[in-house]
Amino acid sequence: MRSLPDLLGGKDDWRVVITDSGLGGLSICAELEKRLRGATGNRAIRLVYVNAWPDSRHGYNDLPDAASRAAVLDKALAAMTAFRPGLILIACNTLSVLYELTEFSRAPAVPVAGIIEEGVDLFHRALTREPEGTLVLFGTRTTIESGEHLRRLTRRGIDARRVFAAACHGLAGAVDKDPDSPGLADLVEECVSRAIKGMKVDGSLYAGLCCTHYSYIADIFQTALARRTGARVEILDPNEHFVRSLTSGMEGVRPEGSEADIAVEVVSKVELGEAQRRAVARRLEPMSARTARALIEYTRIPELF
Where in the chain is the domain with CATH 3.40.50.1860? Predict the structure, then answer.
């Protein structure tokens, strides 16, 4: 993936929209803010996080088919251009899959970068490094049913018999409400039990988290997989890989006493309850107090799209 300097060119002011269906992508926003905070340069940076969850009654994966989901995303993307971004980052596997089906993608008014290829790159490296390794992918219904990760891996020479997958429908929504909810362990256990059916693990077992929300509960996936398979489990989280790629070459030490000019804003069409905001903000705080605060003080725009 191209880095932010490549994607945004020589602009003095960087305005980036980061979007996800829900709040999972805020971990990417937080990590990006953290890395940019320490990068050299005097540019002003504005990160606008747009929660593209379409309706309080349902999410994209509850809609009947890919075409109807892509139609909603088209409206959301058009709305994002109103924030005048130089770049839109789709910090969501579901929306990255759907993006290719949108009208917006045929002639994008703004450069768009998605997370899918970063995940594929990460998974390919692991399976190439250990030829006996097995990969199990966890994601939403849209992501897993699309088969996009598997299709791109097989194009790179990975044997499809080394890759298993399970859709964890409803898990992202549960994480969105409270990433520390005790009930998440049972949901993960159920998803893991379906994923490993018929699986034979000879080497390492890699767990590919193909939903940005799952980064919050990576430890639960690791525990469940290790207990059920007895294998050495390594979590592969594309979220971190995505941010590292975007900030590649920007490492540096800012002059003492200087502070990067960064602002973060969180916008949502649907209402985000205080308990939900505070639960997710607690997870974001160690990475980026600025992002956590932006979530607490979010702006609701009911007519956003």
Answer: 4-115+242-300, 116-238
